[in-house]
Write a structure and sequence with these properties.
Number of strands: 5
Bound molecules: iron/sulfur cluster
Strand order of the largest sheet: 1-2-3
Structural class: mainly alpha
Radius of gyration: 30 Å
CATH class of one domain: Alpha Beta
CATH architecture of one domain: 3-Layer(aba) Sandwich
CATH topology of one domain: Rossmann fold
Distance between the termini: 123 Å
Number of helices: 9
Largest sheet: 3 strands, parallel
Helix content: 25-40%
Strand content: 5-15%
Length: 261
Amino acid sequence: MTTTPVASFSALKQEQLNEFLHDRIQVPDDLQPNVMVTTLDKVYNWSRKSSMWPLLFGLACCAIEMIATAASRYDLARFGMEVMRPSPRQSDLMIVSGTVTKKMVPAIVRIYNQMAEPRYVLSMGACATGGGPFKEGYSVVSGIDKYIPVDVYVPGCPPTPEALIYGLLKLHEKVERQSITTVPWYRRAGSESIPVPILGPDVFDPRKVQIIKEHTLGAGAGSAVSSAASQARLQPQSMPDDVKARIRAAQAKYRAQKQPA
Ligand code: SF4
């Protein structure tokens, strides 16, 4: 039995490149060391990841670590990220750094919608990712990813500057894997804005109004039981006689105490 020698991948690649370079593109000899063959995706992604401008805003204590990351000791300038833009129109990256209160959610979503594409979101810290120590608090949401899409999560309370830099490198890796032919912002339909949540007694997504109505007021098909229960709750309840008597007695006692002696 004879075995066929298998050419190594690098030898094959070199063979292909040699043919490509020498037969189809006539590169002068003195430029040979300076010519590189690559893909459009590679150049496009490299330029985007090397100049990703973060949006300048912070929500709570995590923002202090983000500020430290941008200062001289950690030096975000080596990634081309030192220019934190005060305008969403000029930003590629939103770093959600800090506790996300219900009051802030509409503003965050509005700013996200105003960012030009391609845009990315990094959730920094336990609060932005899942509510952190304030989870289930009356004023805090359990993660910004319930409202806008998040690309990278950085855990910690607060994450160190090193952790944030690691998260940024992961985001760079994600950018490098994208292709100009499949990214959503070049598709014919484009991408839609996210409806800005409404802050009332609680914050809610306007896309879920119908579901909220059905669960609270019992409107809509298939909710006959909840409808009956809701209607019963809305009816004024009659007060038992003994309770009424106790209230009248307490009022009389109160009035007697208030009488001038
Ligand atoms: S995760 Fe910790 S450090 Fe960051 S905002 Fe929340 S409480 Fe502050």
